């Protein structure tokens, strides 16, 4: 007993730090294993089909949920799982800023940029309203709205820590958004002959409606190089909206946590999380070419893997029974939101013939 008291004494800070670090190892390693398996499955898809229909990000959360269904990790695993779900995700969001440059967006024209921004804002509001109308929680409605309106799973992953969403809410929004994301890749090219779309129109439509950048490539390659280039550019513009949206949500975060706590003033760095500031700073540095182009590839790879590890952690923390209670409403919210986005986007593309 005296030894335990001495170990936990405040004066033994380094020893306590080492102990806390050691406690993270089992859970973090478990998440890395699940992420590694997911990455291997995505690589197998890429080898067989030339592109993945289900990304490692989605596979990780599904595999994590599958593991949790058969085995509930005991207490010694929980610290590392929680660390992977929160802190590693925050680091990934910050590093994401290094891959975003404002130069390509500025060169594309004010009209298209304004149209994309307006589409994102309108669909955000409408999607949030649909979620609330169907009885979903405020945070889950925000996640679904951001996922549909901006960039799917990446937007959900970025917004979740800002608004304090829990693992069940994140898993619910990502799982059903992912299913519709795959359906969009497979079904969107059918609109080309149906609506008699030009290559430019279809590229804009794909960039506005498909969730992830790799999915935009998969959806536009059958339509030709012009559609692929335009679709990718529009998609990158849409992704850029993530920064301002997340900053805005961070200012509203206290309301989502029950309002302002007490009478003390809330400082700027309390309202805007450190990783959001890091995201914006890296975006500016990238746009000014201060971040060397040679490091963008490695940073992007690290960001992607950290996000997959975080999604594995979220899956491991999800009780499938919770998903069953909200599945129908979440599916309806995501589907209706996507239909609204499609309708708005189809109307918009006729302005850019």
Automatic annotation (TrEMBL):
A Pfam family found in this protein is Cons_hypoth698
Q: Which keywords fit this entry according to its UniProt record?
A: Cell membrane, Membrane, Transmembrane, Transmembrane helix
Chief localization class? membrane
Q: Point out the signal peptide segment.
A: none
rRNA-binding is among the record's keywords:
no
Topology in the lipid bilayer: Multi-pass membrane protein
Transmembrane portions of the chain: 20-41, 53-71, 91-122, 142-164, 170-192, 204-224, 236-253, 265-284, 296-318, 330-352
List locations, semicolon-separated.
Cell membrane
Family the UniProt entry places it in = Belongs to the UPF0324 family.
- Record protein name field: Integral membrane protein (TIGR00698 family)
């Amino acid at each position: 007993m005296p030894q335990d008291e001495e170990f936990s004494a405040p004066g033994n800070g380094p020893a306590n730090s080492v102990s806390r670090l050691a406690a993270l190892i089992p859970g973090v390693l478990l998440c890395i294993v699940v992420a590694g398996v997911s990455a291997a499955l995505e690589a197998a898809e890429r080898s067989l089909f030339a592109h993945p229909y289900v990304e490692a990000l989605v596979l990780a959360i599904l595999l994590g949920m599958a593991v949790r269904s058969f085995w509930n990790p005991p207490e010694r695993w929980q610290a590392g799982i929680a660390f992977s779900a929160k802190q590693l995700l925050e680091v990934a969001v910050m590093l994401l800023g290094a891959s975003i440059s404002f130069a390509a967006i500025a060169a594309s024209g004010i009209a298209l940029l304004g149209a994309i921004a307006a589409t994102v804002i309108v669909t955000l509001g409408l999607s949030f309203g649909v979620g609330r109308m169907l009885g979903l929680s405020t945070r889950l409605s925000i996640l679904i709205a951001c996922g549909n309106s901006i960039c799917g799973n990446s937007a959900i992953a970025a917004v979740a820590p800002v608004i304090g969403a829990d693992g069940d809410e994140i898993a619910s929004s990502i799982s059903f958004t992912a299913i519709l994301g795959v359906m969009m890749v497979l079904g969107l090219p059918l609109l080309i002959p149906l609506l008699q779309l030009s290559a430019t129109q279809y590229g804009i439509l794909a960039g506005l409606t498909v969730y992830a950048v790799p999915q935009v490539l998969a959806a536009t390659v059958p339509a030709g190089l012009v559609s692929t280039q335009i679709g990718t550019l529009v998609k990158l513009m849409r992704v850029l909206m993530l920064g301002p949206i997340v900053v805005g949500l961070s200012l509203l975060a206290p309301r989502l946590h029950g309002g302002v706590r007490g009478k003390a003033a809330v400082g700027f760095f309390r309202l805007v999380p450190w990783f959001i500031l890091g995201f914006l700073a890296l975006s500016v540095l990238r746009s000014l070419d201060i971040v060397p182009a040679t490091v963008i590839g490695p940073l992007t790879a690290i960001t992607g893997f950290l996000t997959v590890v975080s999604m594995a952690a979220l899956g491991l923390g999800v009780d499938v029974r919770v998903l069953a209670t909200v599945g129908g409403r979440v599916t309806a919210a995501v589907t209706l939101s996507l239909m609204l986005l499609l309708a708005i986007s189809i109307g918009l593309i006729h302005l850019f013939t």
